[in-house]
Design goal:
Layout (H helix, E strand, L loop, with lengths): L4 E4 L15 E7 L2 E6 L5 H13 L5 E6 L5
Antiparallel strand pairs: 1-4, 2-3, 2-4
């Protein structure tokens, strides 16, 4: 497997294999700035989305998925 960052819209996270969830780090990027980093479970993405809507309204943002296959 290749360590390859994927830029996904917030509606695309379901394409990630569930078994790979422990190997995934998600960074939420708004206007080029990382506003939240999730190093635990991808399930937090819905919480991240809620936080973004509260803080930024309906802004454009995306989630950068970093598949860290070196992490055990």
């Amino acid at each position: 497997k290749i360590n390859n960052p994927h830029i996904l819209s917030t509606h695309d996270e379901e394409i990630i294999d569930q078994e790979d969830k422990r190997n995934i780090i998600a960074h939420v990027v708004v206007d080029g700035n990382v506003v939240k980093t999730n190093e635990d479970e991808l399930e937090e993405i819905s919480m991240i989305e809620n936080m973004l809507k509260k803080e930024f309204g309906n802004c454009e943002y995306h989630i950068v998925i970093d598949r860290d296959y070196n992490k055990v």
